[in-house]
């Protein structure tokens, strides 16, 4: 195609960056398809089955003809009520079910949250390393992402001073994600409050992604943004979902909670885009949210055990700096100490290179930091079986111990 040819793919979609995870992922899949014993630390999903009582609720729902139909675009009233009840239980404040919108996963909630409040020219402050979807969702609105980086030396936690330095007259929103994907960092109540108050003072919206709320470890506690800065309610959108908490990634149920005008705009948008979330998935989500948290705590115990194993094994590797992840199910070591080294005859010049060598030489898939912001890091999910975890990190240890 020459430069004078008419454009085929739109500028907006053409600008979406291919995920840096894809190169590694495609190679891992190709190796697996060829029968190789690849161990994958790439997945952002629990390895557990969805708890049986939730599956049973879905089976019962599938047997009822009323669930073979559309639901309101905003979601089943019982699910919106369950979201309000769960918010009271887990976050400690009351919300009106009318301020909720049930979405196809937290991902659609993220996209619709940004689409509801951003215009071209607006700026969104995005703490980095960040989940790979945020900048794309922001760019699709025509707004600009302003990254604020916090490295391993500050446990991946940005400070208000850093946020303030990034603020301009065009700053419309801050994305806040704690516990964090990809770093596992968890902001304390005091840090969360300080950030929320800073946003409130400057009239900056906060989109707070609370999807990993139940996965916190050691002395860390999850702090719902609106529990510490309730006055932010009029300029805050909460994103959440059942995927990580209940091992329900495939069911595609998330939600957003926000001020009435935003929820109305997002619901109008969704009514044209995807209508409602699958009725049976919504029924399953009602069972999940109204059920207890026993299974969730069991899964967290397993994640915690794997987290400790992974962190201690990674810390045995020379050249890695491994802050203790306090939430979610990812470790995020700095691999900067390995850049410049030669491994099996290959000079490592970036974390993409390192991930490629690890995959090709010892058949272990990790996601390079480039997927989440700056180079020099790697993300390893510990949401996989204990034996695979030990085998996979063991292979990386052996490879990197070679002279
Ligand atoms: N937010 C964060 C931080 C995530 O890591 C994910 C899943 N990777 C999501 C939102 C979306 O999850 P889902 O769409 O499966 O509900």
Keyphrases for this structure?
three-stranded antiparallel beta sheet; 403 residues; binds 4'-deoxy-4'-aminopyridoxal-5'-phosphate; 14 strands; alpha/beta
List the helices and strands and how they pair.
Blueprint: H1 11-14, H2 21-33, E1 39-40, H3 52-62, H4 77-91, E2 100-103, H5 105-117, E3 123-128, H6 133-140, E4 144-149, H7 160-166, E5 171-177, H8 189-201, E6 205-209, H9 225-228, E7 236-241, E8 254-257, H10 260-273, H11 279-290, H12 294-315, E9 330-331, E10 342-343, E11 346-347, H13 351-362, E12 364-365, E13 367-368, E14 378-381, H14 386-401
Parallel strand pairs: 1-12, 3-4, 3-5, 5-6, 6-7
Antiparallel strand pairs: 2-8, 7-8, 9-14, 10-11, 13-14
Helix pairs in contact: 3-11, 4-11, 5-6, 5-10, 12-14
The chain binds 4'-deoxy-4'-aminopyridoxal-5'-phosphate.
Walk me through what this model shows.
By secondary structure, the chain is an alpha/beta fold. It has 2 domains: 145 residues, Aspartate Aminotransferase, domain 1, CATH 3.90.1150; 238 residues, Aspartate Aminotransferase, domain 2 (3-Layer(aba) Sandwich), CATH 3.40.640.10. It contains 14 helices and 14 strands. Helix 3 runs antiparallel to helix 11 and helix 5 runs parallel beside helix 6. The longest helix has 22 residues. The structure holds 4'-deoxy-4'-aminopyridoxal-5'-phosphate. 4'-deoxy-4'-aminopyridoxal-5'-phosphate (PMP) binds next to helix 5.
